[in-house]
Design goal:
The chain is about 40% helix and about 15% strand. It has about 500 residues and is of the alpha/beta class. A 10-stranded mixed sheet has the order 1-2-3-5-4-6-7-8-9-10, with helices on both faces. Helix 18 links the parallel strand 9 and strand 10. Helix 7 crosses helix 8, helix 10 runs antiparallel to helix 11 and helix 11 packs across helix 13. The two termini are about 40 Å apart.
Amino acid sequence: MKRAGTAGALVLTVAAAGCGMLPDGDAAAPRPSDGPSTAQEAPSLEAYYQQKLNWRDCGDGFQCARLLVPLNYQDPDGKQLQLAVIRLPAADRDRRVGSLVVNPGGPGASGVDYARAARQTVTAGARERFDVVGFDPRGVGASRPAVRCLDADQMDAYLAADASPDDKDEEQELVAEGRDFAQGCEQRSGDLLPYVGTRDAARDMDVLRSALGDERLTYLGKSYGTYLGAHYADLFPKRVRALVLDGAMDPDLSGVQTYLTQAKGFEVALKAFVTDCVRHDDCPLGSGGVDKAIERLEDLVARTDRKPLRNQLGDGRETTQALAVLGIARALYSKDAWGYLRLGLQRASNGDGTLLLQLGDDLSGRRPDGTYTNQSEANMAVNCLDRPMPREVDEFREDAKKADSASPHFGEFVAWGALPCAFWLVRPSEQEQDLDAAGAAPILVVGTTRDPATPYGWAEALAKQLESGLLLTLDGDGHTAYASGSSCIDRAVDDYLVEGKPPESDTTCS
């Protein structure tokens, strides 16, 4: 029996509340200055480093601007990109420390939307002392141009495709969807695709740091944002003031190793959810042992594979097995969502897949009006470029078998999810990911023991790889730890951000 789900990309996004529109036309072409470069860069990059952000009010206490960066850092006099930037000014201007740049992960998640939710995602103590600054990385969200590959109907079909094919016809359909995705990206965003990698995004962050007027960077990166932060520290170790890397990725892993390990992480989180569920009177999986409850969940997913669930949203979609598993995966990101998952599974057992569908929509970036953010497209574009991926369908088939053995509920879901990379226009980087950030100030790596999307072992590995890495552990559930309910974690992170005093390495909070 097949028990996996969708043709989505690697699931590394931190869900962020809130959204914000940025006014267009906030950037003017930078002009070279007679003065020395703030960052001591080559003269052709000097103008980018010396640009001033034109802040405008964009509602609810926020200010918005656009940052200019070169499309290709090897040709800084060529085409330019405009990155959307937003900030919430520090509450205490007299005691302001500087800017706290935040990134929620993805790749492909909007840093602007995440910063819009700063009152929930950054503690009051940190907001008092820092301007909270978010930006949409190159190719993402409101930055221009943005990666685009599929229209809304095509994206609906792509996400609904069965990523646990039972026969050759289902596999051929899956392969066709992956090929169409890659070809759509090439047709709509071909000129941008070679330049959306993490290393270029890290260089953009240094231009942003200079434009904000900060001598060194203070940064909070979650999930994929830890990978971005590690690249920044490796490129610019002397410009690190304080970096918090929460829900860490392991830069040493290949693309295949990454999604195989991630699938195991979702298994750990699923078992934690089911263990909790059977203690509740309203658990739709029964009140017996965990193994029996998981069998009931498997039966429900299998029935959905045979007959998709109805949907009461009125948009013509059915909740296929792929979309149901996507919804389950979304709920495992946060313990706060476990109640929704219990309710969603209860309704699904009665044939109504609406709530599971809505949970999946939240993860894939589908809006209520049926349109999509570009986070799934940007996610794929970055993943296919950053690390070597298989180039043959046969390799994906073998990897899916391995993943299914290691993670029977999510393995194929994650392994087949990167299939468009087999048809990608741009070859991935073959560069070794040896990121040690030698010479950087202490860097705080935060890991959660039962994190579904970025397994705890990745945080251990990153803390060891970084020369100045320190590990802070949350013994708990959910994806990432800061501002998620642990006062112990919040105090340790805030002391580090504000005062530059990291906790002792290997500190554990519960």
